[in-house]
């Protein structure tokens, strides 16, 4: 069950293959907005993106038939282990960035890049889900904050400005996800959503919160993707070309020796859910579940 939809298991009659049916209710005045998710998904064919198999529209519901992705979400997949290494984090980031490079090349912004929308299937394959916030992007189009208000922790600082969302907005979200994996913490502190963004806008990212023993490449990746100025962030393609994300630029044996115990990450996930519940009650915000 999502915030505005329900996902059910279904089966293809001819092949008997198990698929997922995402059922999205809508009112007539919202129909074009809801159909945008279908219009985005029908253009996408990538290993790290859940594949659309078909769609049905009724007067009250849109049903998206997608490949079944079974597995834990990204952060929980790490928390289920005893420990994990920087190399494993880098491998997941490579898969995320590969999908985002593909999206941006097709003029699409995801705008909801959170761990909850990334499923780890066997064998360790990341699948990007939920394109409910996705938008087609052109340089003359302003995508404002009101279309991106149902999440907070991964929102980029430019969403507070008239500039709106850009391809670099997705890069910020990836930087936040990377930071959490490498610290079990957020890079900025505030229980107030708007204050969270204002603090981030000032560039007050606290790398001292990260685990000890990170490589210089990992630190550089966090600094560049979490640059407060969107134009200072690398593109997805530039991220993928960085030495840290290239196997030739890593001493895998050395980096695998530095492991991060998952106790802190498990506690982080527990506290995150508690805080989200409190924020929903206190500020009446739609914070992603």
From TrEMBL:
| SUPFAM superfamilies for the chain | Protein kinase-like (PK-like) (SSF56112)
Q: Domain of life here?
A: Eukaryota
Domain Protein kinase: residue ranges? 1-245
**One MF term in the entry's GO annotations:** protein kinase activity
User: This chain belongs to which protein, by name?
Assistant: OBSCN protein
């Amino acid at each position: 069950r999502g915030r505005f939809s329900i996902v059910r298991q279904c089966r293809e009659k001819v092949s008997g293959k198990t698929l997922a049916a995402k059922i999205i209710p809508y009112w007539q005045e919202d129909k074009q907005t809801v159909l945008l998710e279908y219009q985005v998904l029908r253009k996408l064919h990538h290993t790290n993106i859940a594949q659309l198999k078909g769609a049905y529209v009724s007067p009250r519901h849109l049903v998206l038939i997608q490949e079944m992705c079974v597995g834990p979400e990204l952060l929980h997949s790490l928390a289920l282990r005893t420990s994990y290494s920087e190399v494993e984090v880098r491998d997941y980031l490579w898969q995320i960035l590969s999908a985002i490079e593909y999206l941006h090349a097709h003029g699409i912004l995801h705008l909801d890049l959170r761990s909850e929308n990334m499923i780890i299937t066997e064998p360790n394959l990341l699948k990007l889900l939920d394109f409910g916030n996705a938008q087609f992007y052109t340089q003359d189009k302003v995508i404002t904050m009101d279309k991106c208000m149902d999440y907070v922790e991964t929102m980029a600082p430019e969403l507070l400005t008239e500039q709106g969302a850009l391809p670099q907005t997705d890069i910020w979200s990836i930087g936040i996800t990377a930071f959490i994996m490498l610290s079990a913490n957020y890079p900025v502190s505030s229980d107030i959503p708007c204050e969270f963004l204002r603090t981030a806008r000032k560039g007050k990212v606290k790398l001292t919160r990260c685990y000890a023993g990170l490589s210089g490449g990992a630190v550089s990746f966090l600094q560049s993707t979490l640059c407060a100025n969107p134009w200072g962030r690398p593109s997805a393609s530039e991220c993928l070309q960085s030495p840290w994300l290239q196997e030739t630029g890593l001493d895998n044996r050395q980096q695998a020796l530095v492991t991060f115990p998952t106790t802190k990450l498990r506690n982080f996930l527990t506290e995150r859910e508690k805080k989200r519940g409190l924020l929903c009650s206190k500020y009446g915000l739609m914070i992603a579940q």
